[in-house]
């Protein structure tokens, strides 16, 4: 057995200390062996559960073999940062408010890609100042990376039955990021699972997207349908979506490990533009310029105005029937986009006004 290099051990210790100073709530280090996770990924792709996310198949084994994505990679530094915003309206209250529209809590603040990537670059720069040049690349949900599998191997938690990463102390309300490096750093022990016999997330999923423990069918997932899916939302799933217009937090809201989850300390993830508790009719009235202005600097902007209106049309179709809802939908009846028109017509039909 090789004797650990004291210098590398000290560097690993320093990396975690520097990460904490940069606002990361936890930092772990792991190797590149993802053979078991690759097998699970291939089964998932072969079953077609990735839906329209064809890029997941196109990337081949780069996602599960870090050395193919970044040649020379020997270790991955995995980080996480809490995002649950303080002083936001209770998520369940918004979901049950007939006039409101619900957006996933992760989307309410600044675009996390920018926040975490900048911090990872700062961490790498600090490492270079300490040891000299080395090979690295930073990723934040921006490349074919099995981030949850890597985070579990790095000891940041375990993958729960809803396929999100869980921590006994921190729950699941956090973002992940990675620094691929060619340094042979000492690795951390992996996280161990603590879901037990609980199936709260499976029972809570509005569309039955969690088809079995650790098995998510994206084609039924509200997050996929409202964000990733470019076309019409299947009609049989629309009534099940309620007022969820951007993502879905149901599986996290019922998870026992989230009962004591901490709010973020990061100002960038605080609520912007009152989107923690918006009125669906008001959002549906936004023209494209308003949409772009109000969503600037957030992950919501990449959705585009057309899908924004599509999702809101579904929410209004599920809202209680009333003259204001009908008028809002009628105003979009002849929208230039066939995608928007089809969902508006469906919503009007739901209210007996089609």
Automatic annotation (TrEMBL):
Binding site for [4Fe-4S] cluster 2: 205, 221, 248, 251
Annotated Gene Ontology cellular component terms: cytoplasm
Residues involved in cob(II)alamin binding: 63, 141, 165, 176, 223, 248-249
Coiled-coil regions listed in the entry: none
EC number: 1.17.99.6
Residues that bind [4Fe-4S] cluster 1: 195, 198, 201, 255
Cofactor field: cob(II)alamin; [4Fe-4S] cluster
The reaction(s) this protein catalyses: epoxyqueuosine(34) in tRNA + AH2 = queuosine(34) in tRNA + A + H2O
A Pfam family reported for this protein in Swiss-Prot or TrEMBL: Fer4_16
Example of a GO MF term: 4 iron, 4 sulfur cluster binding
GO biological process, one term: tRNA queuosine(34) biosynthetic process
Main location: cytoplasm
UniProt-annotated catalytic positions: 141 (proton donor)
4Fe-4S ferredoxin-type domain: residues covered: 183-215
The protein's annotated pathway: tRNA modification; tRNA-queuosine biosynthesis
Cofactor note: Binds 2 [4Fe-4S] clusters per monomer.
Root EC class: oxidoreductase
Stated family: Belongs to the QueG family.
Matches recorded under NCBIfam families: tRNA epoxyqueuosine(34) reductase QueG
HAMAP family for this protein: QueG
Subunit architecture: Monomer.
Function according to Swiss-Prot or TrEMBL: Catalyzes the conversion of epoxyqueuosine (oQ) to queuosine (Q), which is a hypermodified base found in the wobble positions of tRNA(Asp), tRNA(Asn), tRNA(His) and tRNA(Tyr).
Protein name (record): Epoxyqueuosine reductase
Origin organism lineage: Bacteria, Pseudomonadati, Pseudomonadota, Gammaproteobacteria, Chromatiales
Gene: queG
């Amino acid at each position: 057995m090789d004797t650990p290099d004291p210098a590398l051990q000290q560097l690993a210790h320093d990396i975690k200390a520097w990460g904490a100073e940069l606002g990361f709530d936890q930092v772990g280090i792991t190797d590149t062996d993802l053979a078991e996770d690759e097998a699970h990924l291939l089964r998932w792709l072969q079953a077609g559960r990735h839906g329209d996310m064809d890029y997941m198949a196109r990337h081949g084994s780069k996602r599960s073999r870090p050395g193919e994505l970044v040649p020379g990679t020997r270790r991955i530094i995995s980080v996480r940062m809490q995002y649950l915003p303080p002083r936001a309206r209770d998520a369940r209250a918004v979901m049950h408010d007939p006039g409101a529209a619900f957006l996933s809590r992760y989307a309410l603040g600044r675009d996390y890609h920018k926040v975490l990537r900048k911090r990872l670059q700062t961490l790498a720069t600090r490492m270079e100042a300490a040891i000299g040049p080395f090979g690295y690349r930073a990723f934040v949900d921006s490349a074919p990376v099995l981030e949850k599998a890597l985070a579990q191997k790095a000891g940041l938690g375990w993958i729960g039955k809803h396929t999100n990463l869980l921590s006994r102390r921190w729950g699941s309300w956090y973002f992940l990021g990675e620094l691929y490096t060619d340094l042979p750093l000492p690795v951390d022990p992996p996280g161990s699972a603590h879901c037990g016999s609980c199936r709260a997330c499976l029972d809570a999923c509005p569309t039955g997207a969690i088809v079995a423990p650790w098995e998510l069918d994206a084609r039924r997932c509200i997050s996929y349908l409202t964000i990733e899916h470019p076309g019409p939302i299947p009609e049989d799933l629309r009534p099940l979506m309620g007022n969820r217009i951007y993502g879905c937090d149901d599986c996290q809201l019922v998870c026992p490990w989230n009962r004591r989850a901490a709010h973020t300390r990061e100002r960038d993830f605080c609520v912007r533009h009152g989107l923690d508790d918006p009125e669906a009719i008001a959002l549906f009235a936004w023209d494209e310029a308003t949409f772009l202005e109000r969503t600037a600097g957030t992950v919501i902007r990449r959705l585009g105005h057309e899908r924004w209106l599509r999702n809101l049309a579904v929410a209004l179709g599920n809202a209680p029937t009333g003259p204001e809802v009908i008028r809002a939908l009628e105003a979009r009846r002849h929208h230039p986009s066939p995608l928007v028109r089809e969902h508006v017509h469906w919503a009007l039909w739901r209210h007996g006004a089609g």
